[in-house]
Amino acid sequence: MQIRINAHDGVPIYLQVVQQIRYLVAAGRLEPGDELPPIRGLAEQLTVNPNTIARAYRELEVAGIVEKRRTAGTYVTDQGSPLARRERTKILTERIDQLLAESTQMGFELDEVIRLLQQRHTVIARSQSGENTHEQ
Amino acid sequence: MQIRINAHDGVPIYLQVVQQIRYLVAAGRLEPGDELPPIRGLAEQLTVNPNTIARAYRELEVAGIVEKRRTAGTYVTDQGSPLARRERTKILTERIDQLLAESTQMGFELDEVIRLLQQRHTVIARSQSGENTHEQ
DNA sequence: GTTGTTGTATTAATTCAATAATACAAGGTG
DNA sequence: CACCTTGTATTATTGAATTAATACAACAAC
Which of A83, A135, B48, B115 is least enclosed by beta carbons within 10 angstroms? Predict the structure, then answer.
């Protein structure tokens, strides 16, 4: 399991783990049914307390990314069953409201926001598939 | 100055003040040139330490929302001079990238995001002009 | 100059999230 | 059963962010 922790960048360790595993799943490097490393194993590998990993796994479980089987380990879920669509829409709506509040505050018009959104989408999509295109 | 503080909702007091003043400015209830209440006055009104209000005002100043005149008080800026467009675009780009990452993670397509964005924009715009529609 | 108002600076107390130490519970396998 | 591996629960420690106590500095009005 390729996970890198940076202890001094302000982002809590458990969050770094959550984010990186989310990314691995999103990228298809971890597929439904795959087993995650046991809590203790990953904790040891990262030189971190098992509770910290347990917390990360718990968050991933709540988010519907993984499921735990009591004494048998932690597995990537079948996806599609992560959260009901209604729930996901609710979360997305919150994020969008926040974005709108800030962009309005900064004096952007709606169509400017949408234009930038589309632009970033293509930029990001390209850098995901292609390889290292530049960012910025 | 109509500001309401909720001491028990997890959001730091200074941030609540910042957000509410930002909102007052955005809504036009506070106009360029208007004077904010003196730090001590607002602190007393909210039963809070003056430093807490000072911090809020400082953040508003950094954000370009207000300016301080040494011993004469704190005033809403002329706006238009808040942050250079390039700087604002940079910030907005960060927010948008974050939104895209999350929405992709949750399985939304770009046009779903845009559709919801447009929808929320009209909903919010309506509730702003109308008056107090429900918040929550 | 004195006084009263404005914002500022320094330091201390407090609170809370993150992490760790440690012990517990459940289930599979010989 | 005995044992090993899995995740869980409880409690303590730590460190950063928030808030407060208190004293300072600048300027305007008298």
Answer: A135
CB B101 within 8 A of CB A127: no
Chain B 54-113 contacts with nucleic strand D (CB below 7 A): 55, 70-72
Tokens for B78, please give them: 């002329």
| B92: chain A residues, CB-CB within 8 Å | 102-103, 106, 108, 113, 116
Convert the pLDDT of each residue in A28-87 to its tens digit. Answer: 889 999 999 999 999 999 999 999 999 999 999 998 899 998 788 999 988 754 556 777
Q: How many residues does chain A have?
A: 136
| pLDDT tens-place string over residues B2-44 | 889 988 788 999 999 998 998 888 777 898 999 999 999 999 9
CATH class for the region spanning A13-76: mainly alpha
Q: Say which DSSP state A8 is in.
A: T
Please name which of B77, B85, B79, B22 lies closest in space to residue A109, comparing C-alpha atoms.
B85
Q: What positions of strand C are covered by protein, i.e. any atom < 7 Å from a CB? A: 4-11, 17-23, 25-28
A8 CB below 7 A from strand D atoms: no
Residue A68 burial (CB count, 10 A): 16
Q: How far is CA A96 from CA A29, A71, B89, B121, in A?
A: 29, 39, 17, 9
**pTM for this structure?**
0.70
User: Residue B68 corresponds to which amino acid?
Assistant: K
Nearest Cα residue in chain B from A63: B106
Contact B95 A116 (CB under 8 A): no
Q: Which of A31, A26, A41 has its CA nearest to residue A75?
A: A31
Beta bridge partners of residue B35, listed in sequence order: B75
Question: What is the CA B69 to C1' C9 distance in angstroms?
Answer: 17
Q: How far apart are CA A18 and CA A73, in angstroms?
A: 17
